[in-house]
Design goal:
It is a single chain. This protein is α+β, with helices and mostly antiparallel strands and 91 residues long. The protein has one domain (2-90): 2-Layer Sandwich (Alpha-Beta Plaits). It has 4 helices and 4 strands; from the N terminus they run βαββαβαα. A hairpin with a 5-residue loop joins strand 2 (33-39) and strand 3 (45-51).
Amino acid sequence: MLFKLARTLTPEARNTRVKQFMATGGMPPKRISMLSRYHNLDRTGGFAILDTTDSLALADWALDWNGLIKIEINAIMYDETISSVLPKHFG
């Protein structure tokens, strides 16, 4: 399943957050595939697109960071996937 993990950064935890990122690369555990990661130009946050069937691993990884950044996680899908349900409702 695909997820969008959006993050918002605040200046209060900057030094701790940067040190943790440098130590880990901000990479998820092996049970989560990071398909892409984007950063806001002003360094106020960004988002990553993740693929996993392990929601517990996703929650655990978010807990590693949520004291340092604001995290919002949403399930997402491709156009082709959502398009497959449209005929039932609008066809």
